[in-house]
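User: Could you walk me through two proteins back to back? I'd like the raw sequence and the structure tokens for each, with a short line separating them so I can tell where one ends and the next begins.

Assistant: Of course. Protein one, sequence then structure:
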Amino acid sequence: MPEVIDKVAAVLTDALTEQGFDLWDVRYEKQDADMVLRVLVDRLDGDINMDDLVMLTELISDRVDEIQPDPFPEAYLLDVSSPGAERDLKRPRDFDWAVNKTVELELKTPVDGEMTLTGTLVSATDDEITLEVVGKKGKRTQVTLPMDQIKRAHLSIDQDRILMTDDDFAWATEKLVQVSTYRKIDGQKDFVGELTEVTPEVLVLADEDGQTIEIPRDVVAKARHTNTF
């Protein structure tokens, strides 16, 4: 119900800012048999903690109770929490905050056959967004999309999965990986590239320029999936 959300946001925005917090989002939604008012809050500086949320629950409850006339058609549960690690990006300042962070975009129409894009947010304006994505061979490219093509944008958790078993390496095939070795191969011990092939004896990586290197598995000290070089 947009009217409820707008009224709640109107009374909370300045009150939270004065206390050093940012009203990230307000949601009024059904959960099982109950209506729930979800208020997502973050610190303007630093990380929000449990003590903050306890204090904010009381502050927010008092402020919402003061709204007249009462905009709620029925009783509701109040849930005050942080936006979380995969927080939605909606407002212009959300995107400004997320510059240089990894984000995931769900698209209304496909780009190169893909309905989702994950990459580093380079810039955002009111009209468009620029994302740096890593291709299959580890090559970085920038993609600029109009805002009206984006169905949903949210922060993405970097998936730095440690690779140890055959199942891990099978999962990581055609993904970007980082490998460290016990001894030098061609003068180096650290490699990053697309994992193109896995055998019982070797890992084959393709670097940003498409050059391949074979790494004997018996010299691998550590391997992990990564999103960045």
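----
Protein two, same layout:
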Amino acid sequence: MGNELQHRTVLLDEAVESLVTRPDGVYVDGTFGRGGHSRAVLARLAPAGRLIAFDKDPRAIETAQRIEDARFSIVHDSFASMRDALAARGVEKVSGVLLDLGVSSPQVDDPARGFSFRADGPLDMRMDPTRGESAAEWLARASVQELTEVIRDYGEERFAFQIAKALVARRAESDRLGPLDTTGELAQIVGHVVKTREKGKDPATRTFQAIRIHVNQELADLQVVLGAALSLLEQGGRLVVISFHSLEDRIVKRFMQAHASAPAVDRRLPIRAVDLPSPPLKIISRQFPSEAEVVANPRARSAVMRIAERVTP
């Protein structure tokens, strides 16, 4: 079975139904993955509709290039490049933007990609292995302070400082032991430090998440693409975001709330509510996977989908 068949798209019908409000509109899938959402969007589009997808993963690009549909195009880049990439294609406004955040099952399940602590593999973790610094390269140079901040802030790991010290101590042994360049050894080091066990969670989970987020600039890119999406959406256009952990969801929630609220004004000032600019967004809903979907796909358990609509021109 091919990798693209192993990935189960989360909240597929719910996301596409929320996204596509104009069958003849221009839509963006910011995270093509293995194409589940993109194919479902194309099935709902009219002949005049258009879908532009983004992905950093070369394997995702290979899958996308097999889609033979004149309405579809793929961009091999981060969704953070959305504004410039669409401008280069003559697109000024879109009818909807979909972001399915996180790592796809084929990425996690392939030890060669270095995302998982469950099977030993090279310590890479890049969404695009052809660009940027790998996890092993970053770990070979990062200071205790930088390691601590990344593991604490992106992994919400309370043993961040102890893990950072252990990683730097291991680096000091590189002449004797060789470089730290496998997921198995990283997981082993973290496991020796983190003595407490969360039910159903490997002690390396938070550290691996933190390093992956840092290596791929996931949260920084998310901040950028949310701003780009807001500026690109036409009136009535939808922003649909599926998050898989609290750090992502917090950013999305705060962004939508901030742009769906009227600006705060000192009550003592002689300004009427009608004189204030209208907020550009309206929050539509928040949705979670059904029990049936979670049973069929346990990785959907942590997913939350937030939907907002552009209400101003």
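DSSP finds 15 helices and seven strands in the chain.

Let me know if you want the two compared in more detail.
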